[in-house]
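Predict the 3D structure for this chain.
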Amino acid sequence: MDPRYRHKHLLRLLAEHGAAPISRLAGWLGVSAATVRRDIRLLDTAGQLRRTHGGARRVDAGTPQPALTPGAPGSSFTDTARANAGSKRAIARRAAALCADGDTLLIGGGTTTFQLAAFLAGRPMRILTNSFAIARELLASGSDDVIITGGKVYPAQGIILSPFDTEAVQYCYADRLFMGAHCLSALGAMEADALLIQAGRRLIHQARDVVVLADASKFDRRGGMFLCALDRIARVITDTAAPDAGVQMLERAGVQVDIVAPEMPPGPRDAACLQAAARSWNSASPPH
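Done. Predicted structure below.
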């Protein structure tokens, strides 16, 4: 079963039942428990479900969620990923559509770029990343040409960075680099952390096109440290909440701007369709 189709149906099952253990989800979907565990970990990081001990539960739309400030002290990678999760997933889907089989890609660490893993998994392309989380998800989902940069793991920033100039990235030239940013301004792409600046600059020089994945919140921020000028950015993918002034600023600088609508979690109204589709997949597809 295609991972994107499976994720959609897993979410619909939880929308109907509220919560379920891994064994039951595996039976409904006709896949192994290990596959369900990987899916739950990915979707929990994306904020589309909540992982529980031995299973998962749905995210209730009517339950207020704590306000998250990505990058704030104490915020984890998972917490940051849950902020604007629908926008990030839609942005990642659009970014994946730019890629052709056989491409060589660079993917920088970040919660929006992390979403790319679900859409690129298993496709015949070479992917180099400085994010352990992205590499893990790609490998778990069937990608077999993944290169990860060497060095020290920095959990707070979600990257791997080497103090030496012997990283694999310097021997790689990619069709495009997908990266995030702390904010976008007339100066260019900005980052809030010196380590992210160092990591990003190592990647920027190794790609033909630089594509920035930035939800609307990145236009409202101020400050940060300079990463790269707008004339180095070929495209920005953002969501429909992006301010007109910010979009026009990018376009005046010659940056192509793609605007996508945030994705919403599936609701319970089509639970009956889900069960029929799941039974069809169970009979047609062998367990993974």
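The two ends are 8 Å apart (CA to CA).
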